[in-house]
Amino acid sequence: MQSDEQGYPYITNETLCVSCGHCVAVCEAHAIHHDNFPFGTIQPVQRECLPTSDQVRELFRCRRSIRAFLDKPVDRDLLTSIVDAARFAPSTNNEQSTEWLIVQDKALLKKIEKETCIYFQHVIDRLHNPLIRLLYALSTRPEARSTLASLHDLQMVIKNENNTTDFFLRNAPVLIISHSKKTLGSSDVDAHFALHNATLMIQTVGLGCFYAGYVVVACRKNRHLQRLLSLPPGHSIHGCLALGYPKISYENWIEKRPAQVSWRY
Predict the structure, then answer these.
(1) Model pTM?
(2) How far is Cα 67 from Cα 247, in angstroms, rounded to an integer?
């Protein structure tokens, strides 16, 4: 952006503008007009509401994955506030590509649980075939090797699923699924930034969650499960958060290993 002879700013190359909003966000006088940010979309920062670094650090320390939930529904307004916080995450070229599916229907949650179990039982059955196991062992694909290495864990998962009937979602009353168009190159990274925002908001409103990784894998591979979710055509799932009101309150945070850092001067 440059200024003309009268001092008014103008965009030198509009084709490079990705509507990030930096120009209007930095202007204290609200003097910059941008077609994509009409009146009402630009709000002053309430700095008195911003947390201190100590408060943010404590939030990071005390956030834990929750896998035991109360049998209590979560209000839709509360879920809307979580997604609203997630949408402010950064995204590539400001594409804001992440979309959301929020599942509260108990019958659908049970079907998701069942189809996830069916998918992983199918994986186990395949890996019990000696020829398939050999092909996985010889494969150079990291996904194939990690699947083979996790065979024992998968067997334990299915055993627990058969015993508890809800191992994958842990009776969570809500499942939040992030998804976007497959054609967008960095949409998976953008979705995980948004999911991280969501996990922190979930913590602050008194809810708990865990990343349902098994469900993510099954959703990507199981076509029947994909049809159950009725995602828009051409969309891919990037993450799932199972959430609800925690049964347990953690009163302590646990120290983790120091960060491994290399410095270059």
Answers:
(1) 0.85
(2) 9
